[in-house]
Amino acid sequence: MRVRELMTGAPITVTPDAPVFEARQLMLKERIRHLVVTEGTRLVGIVTDRDIRLNLPSQATSLSVWEVNYLLAKLTVGKVMSRTVITVGPDREAHEAARLMLEHKIGALPVVDGDRVVGIVTETDVLRAFLKGAEQVAGLKA
Q1: Domain 3-141, CATH among 3.30.230.80, 3.20.20.80, 1.10.3730.10, 3.10.580.10
Q2: What is the CA 115 to chain-centroid distance, rounded?
Q3: pLDDT digits (tens, 9 = 90+) for 10-20
């Protein structure tokens, strides 16, 4: 199986200047944990729900609601994203993508074709492919 068969095409993206609060709302709305950060179609980073949570003020803050909102409005994705991104090509073997994710302890790999982002492979995609394969094997043996 190739990465292109496994990946989620047309990933949800944000720009580096997007406010962190908006990125968080988008992740909650779409029920995702990773956003690919792009400038045009070029990959510039990735931001995870963990990156965002680590940069939000603590619930125990002494700041007022207005101060917190002001700070959040100023905090952009570009300030909290990972700029060094491990990627995979769409024609690589899916098991190679899974190995990269395990070796680097990451939950997602942007899929790039040349300079263009064409998809994303997440832990969920890998698990879905594993389950499909296991069900096919079980179906053959049943």
Answers
A1: 3.10.580.10
A2: 18
A3: 899 999 999 99
